[in-house]
Design brief:
By secondary structure, this protein is of the alpha+beta class. Helix content is about 50%, strand content about 25%. The chain has one domain. The strands form 2 sheets. The protein has a 4-stranded antiparallel β-sheet, covered by helices on one side. A 3-stranded antiparallel β-sheet has the order 5-6-7, with helices on one face. The protein starts with a strand and ends with a helix.
Length: about 190
């Protein structure tokens, strides 16, 4: 059994989730958006060149319209995704998180505190209540150092843990005392992910 190095208990606000998403996008998607914008800008310049050479050139106007639309969509899409994600999260139950960091892995437990809506009683729900059982209200995720692609980032408000360039975990500093922050920073540095 591996040694537990640190345990963190925390929750997140919508502002922290929004900031975490922005930092995630900046770290992994910004360069791709810049490259696509350059490609679309080249197509835009070609469209303008077609029109300058022949102002009745339909393909030049079409190329300009498509290029401008793609440039706009390229930069507006992350904003739409963030808004949709925050709308979805704001309607969900309040959650607390417990992160246990061991020498070989990170175990993250999500505890659901309040259900957003009461479930309608069905035959199965009634049977569970009679037996004194409740539906599980927590989920556990384990990430392994070395096998999962982990990366971390720290700013003045939070630590972010990036998993396989597709998932983030946010550790707000407002929930961590100075000793926990120093220990988390030390662990991430020793594991070469910060």
């Amino acid at each position: 059994m591996s040694e537990k190095l640190l345990q963190l208990n925390y929750n997140m606000t919508l502002d922290e989730i929004s900031e975490g998403f922005k930092l995630f996008w900046k770290k992994y998607q910004f360069k791709k958006c810049v490259i696509y914008t350059i490609v679309y800008a080249i197509a835009l310049v070609l469209g303008i060149d077609f029109i300058i050479k022949n102002h009745e050139n339909f393909y030049g106007y079409m190329l300009i319209g498509i290029s401008v639309g793609l440039i706009f969509f390229n930069w507006y899409r992350p904003v739409m995704v963030r808004k949709k994600m925050l709308d979805t999260i704001s309607g969900l139950a309040e959650e607390n998180y417990i992160t246990e960091i061991y020498s070989d892995r990170i175990k993250i437990t999500t505890e659901i505190l309040d259900e957003p809506k009461e479930k309608e009683n069905s035959g199965e729900d009634s049977k569970e209540e009679e037996n004194g059982e409740e539906a599980p209200k927590e989920s556990v995720t384990e990430l392994f150092f070395g096998s999962d692609t982990l990366d971390a980032l720290e700013n003045e408000r939070m630590f972010l843990l990036f998993v396989n360039r597709s998932l983030i975990y946010i550790y707000p500093k407002r929930c961590l005392d100075k000793e926990s922050q120093d220990k988390l920073r030390q662990i991430f540095t020793e594991k070469a992910i910060l």
